[in-house]
Every structure is written in structure tokens, then in C-alpha cells.
Design a protein that fits this description.
Blueprint (H helix, E strand, L loop, with lengths): L2 E5 L2 E4 L4 E8 L8 E6 L6 E6 L6 E3 L7 E6 L4 E6 L8 E8 L15 E4 L3 E6 L1
Parallel strand pairs: 2-11
Antiparallel strand pairs: 1-3, 3-8, 4-5, 4-9, 5-6, 7-8, 9-10, 9-11
Length: 128
């Protein structure tokens, strides 16, 4: 049974930092692109960041570029999201996800429909 478990969320003041982790179990995802999405109250789920299986290619939403960094440790089957200079508008439930297909070493997607497995989500709250 595939499981994705996020951790590292919580409450932080504006300007602070958090690091989210997503531990995968049930199978290896070392050849799968992965991503982070978030959903704020009353809003649709939105793309945050994506990374190819090799880790060599990444993509970010404009709203988080320069502040967030996505990276992965395939040996640990774990995905990370380092979030710096947090803003109140970053408040949301954050989800990690694994892509459906095994693409090339540079492949990733920013579309939620491309992802097959999802974590249960973790709350990040940024106070002003």
C-alpha cells in the first residue's frame, strides 16, 4: 500500500521558515517526478513546486519563486520543501504528490491531474 506522509508544518510568524518533508512508503519513487500543492480555505488546490526524479529539474509557482526550494533524497524515498520568507498568504494545507508516469530525468508537471498518489496534507499557518 502506497503512503505519503507529510510532516514539518505548523504555525510560524511572517518572515520565518519551515521545512516540509514527505516520506513515501509502499514502493520506491526514485524514478517518479514529485510535487507540492497547497489549498487555502475557500480556494482551489494550486501548484507550488515540482521536481524531476533525477532532482535536476525543478519548477515553481511565481508566488513562491526565490523563497521556496524543492529537493529530494531518493535513497530515503523522501521529498522536501524548504520554505523561507513566509508570508500570511502562504497559509494553506500543503500536499505532496507523486506523478503517474515514469518520465525522463528532466520530466515534471505542474498539473494536479498528472499526479497519482497524494499525501493527507499538512497545515501551514503564517501569522502577520
Amino acid at each position: 500500500q502506497v503512503q505519503l506522509v507529510e510532516s514539518g508544518g505548523g504555525l510560524v510568524q511572517a518572515g520565518g521558515s519551515l521545512r516540509l518533508s514527505c516520506a513515501a512508503s509502499g514502493r520506491t519513487f526514485s524514478r517518479s517526478a514529485m510535487g507540492w500543492f497547497r489549498q487555502a480555505p475557500g480556494k482551489e488546490r494550486e501548484f507550488v513546486a515540482a521536481i524531476s526524479w533525477s532532482g535536476g529539474s525543478t519548477d515553481y509557482a511565481d508566488s513562491v519563486k526565490g523563497r521556496f526550494t524543492i529537493y529530494r533524497d531518493n535513497a530515503k524515498n523522501t521529498l522536501y520543501l524548504q520554505m523561507n520568507s513566509l508570508k500570511p498568504e502562504d497559509t494553506a494545507v500543503y500536499y505532496c504528490a507523486v506523478d503517474k508516469q515514469t518520465g525522463g530525468p528532466s520530466y515534471y508537471s505542474s498539473r494536479a491531474a498528472a499526479y497519482e498518489y497524494w499525501g493527507q496534507g499538512i497545515q501551514v499557518t503564517v501569522s502577520s
